[in-house]
Amino acid sequence: MGFPTHRMRRLRLNNTIRDMVRETSLSVNDFIYPLFVQPGAGKKDEIVSMPGNYRFSIDELVKEVEDLKRLGVPAVMLFGIPEQKDERGSEGIAENGIIQRAVREIKNSVPEIVVITDVCFCEYTSHGHCGCVLDQQVDNDATLEWLGKMAISHAKAGADVVAPSDMMDGRIGAIRQSLDEQGFHNTPILSYAAKFASAFYGPFRDAADSAPQFGDRRSYQMDPANGDEAIREVALDIEEGADIVMVKPALPYLDIIRRVKDKFQLPTAAYNVSGEFAMVKAAGKMGWIDETRVMMEWLLSIKRAGADLILSYFAKDAARLLS
Ligand code: PBG
Q: Which of 53, 111, 143, 252 has the fewest CB atoms within 10 Å, i.e. is most exposed?
C-alpha cells in the first residue's frame, strides 16, 4: 500500500507514553553548583554578566549552601577571590586563605554537602595566569610544585574533592603524589581533563577578576579544533590517577563528552560555563527565547551526550524545577 509500517509518531501520542520511552532524564543528583567566595561579611554581590550568581562572603556563602542542601543539590565547586593577589598567588595556598576558611565553615555547618575546590592559580596571581610565570611564560614544572601545595591545603581544610583546572602537563600525577604523601589517599581528583581555550569564560573572568594581564591561555589550554588531542589529554589524566574527568565548556564540545564517555567509561563531568549561562540569560531577558525551556534542553543535551555530572550555574534553577 506504500504506507509506512513504522510510525515513529505512535510513541509520541501523549505525555504518558512520551514519559515511558524517554531515554534521558535529569536528576538533581547530576548537578554541581559553582560558587564564588570573597573576603568580608554580609556580602552578596551579584555578578553583572551572571544574573542570580553572586560573590559571597563566607557567612552568606554558608546560607547559600544551606539553601542548596534543602534543594537536594549534592555538591558545590568553590572559587576564591582573595584579599590580595600577588606574583606567586600566595593566598591560594595560605592556611587562612579565603578558600581554606570557606571550606572549613561549610564543612562545619553543612557537612553533608560535597565540597569540591578549584585548584588553579589564576584567581590568586596578579598576572592572572594559572601558574608560575618565568620570562613571560607559564613554567610547567614549577607550577606542578605549587599545585601540589594548593591541593594539600584544600584537603587539610576539609575539601572532599580537588579539581585542578590549570592544564599543566603532569599535574594529576603530581597532585596525586602530594596528596598521598600527606595521607590524603582518599581525596578524589576531579580533573578538568579536556579544557579548551574558550571565549566562553568571559563572565567568569569578570567574576573572579582573573583575566590574564598579558597574552592568553592558549599555551596551556586546548585548541578548540582538536578532538583526538582531547582524548589523549583525558587518557593521560586517567593514567596519572584522575577519578573523574571533565570536559569544558559543554555545549560546543558535546562530541568530546560523548567520545570520552564511550572510550573510558569513567565518571564524566561537563562544565556548562559562564558564557553559556550568560547567553541564555541575555536572550531570555530580551524575550527572544523561553529561558527555562532552553535551560532544560541545554542541560539534557549535556546528559544525553554522556555526562554523568554537570557543573552549571543553572543547577539551582534546575533543582527547583526538578523538585
Ligand atoms: C580557572 C578556571 C576558569 C574557569 C573555571 N576555572 C577560567 C579560565 O580558565 O580562564 C571558567 C569557568 C566558567 O567560565 O564558568 N582556571
A: 111
In a domain, 15, yes or no: no
pLDDT tens digits, 224-258: 999 999 999 999 999 999 999 999 999 999 999 99
Mutate to test the pocket of ligand 1, among 117, 201, 310 (most ligand atoms within 8 A of CB): 201
Q: Known catalytic residue: 44?
A: no
The reply to whether the predicted model has a pTM over 0.85 is: yes
248 as an active site residue: the answer is yes
211 C-alpha vs ligand 1 centroid, how far in Å?
A: 10
- Which residue has 541575555 as its cell numbers? 282
Number of domains in the chain: 1
In which domain, by residue range, is 221 found? 24-322
Nearest Cα to 236, choosing from 146, 142, 172? 172
Q: Which residue has the least CA distance to atom 11 on ligand 1?
A: 201
For the chain, the C-alpha Rg in angstroms (whole number) is: 20
- CATH code where residue 82 lies: 3.20.20.70
CB 217 within 8 A of CB 164: no
